[in-house]
Amino acid sequence: AGTSGVMVYAKGNVSGPEIFRLALLMMVTAFVVILVVALPWWSLVGEPLVR
Hints:
Radius of gyration: 17 Å
Strand content: under 5%
Largest sheet: none
Shape: elongated
Helix content: over 70%
Protein name: TRAP C4-dicarboxylate transport system permease DctM subunit domain-containing protein
Number of domains: 1
Order of helices and strands: HH
Keywords: Membrane, Transmembrane, Transmembrane helix
Transmembrane segments: 19-42
């Protein structure tokens, strides 16, 4: 998050649980993107990840 994230949290604009929920959402989104985009991509370029 960097310095701006620390400043926003320190000023009380967001709570700890809100940050946790957002981080969890971002992690799940990244995992889905990897499954939907990255894994098929390697098969398309001829390097499947499973044999």
